[in-house]
Amino acid sequence: LAAVRDVGPAGHYLGHPHTLENFQRAFFMPELFDNNSIEQWQAEGSKDTITRGLEYAKRMLNEYQEPKLDEAKNDELLDYIARRERDIPTMDALNEDA
């Protein structure tokens, strides 16, 4: 409310310190959209959203690191899978005539 009091009627918040400190957290800024001027966009290669999206996806795939899994948890999961494979009939058994 301090910003509202500071700005007053008919004022604007664009230059207010509160706005400058908080605008990046207060508004969602999508990574794939370009808010630069057309001159800056052209200087950076005139990439459309599809190109930027593909570059982003490739970067994410290239930077992916498999999460560490506790060895005991991994053993539990493998044991669970083995038990379920024994307990659930295979597709061949389901397709046999009774």
From TrEMBL:
It holds the Pfam family MTTB. GO terms for molecular function: methyltransferase activity. One of its GO terms (biological process) is methylation. It comes from the Bacteria. Keywords: Methyltransferase, Transferase. InterPro entries: MttB-like_sf, MTTB_MeTrfase. Belongs to the trimethylamine methyltransferase family. This is Trimethylamine methyltransferase MttB-like protein. It comes from uncultured Thiotrichaceae bacterium.
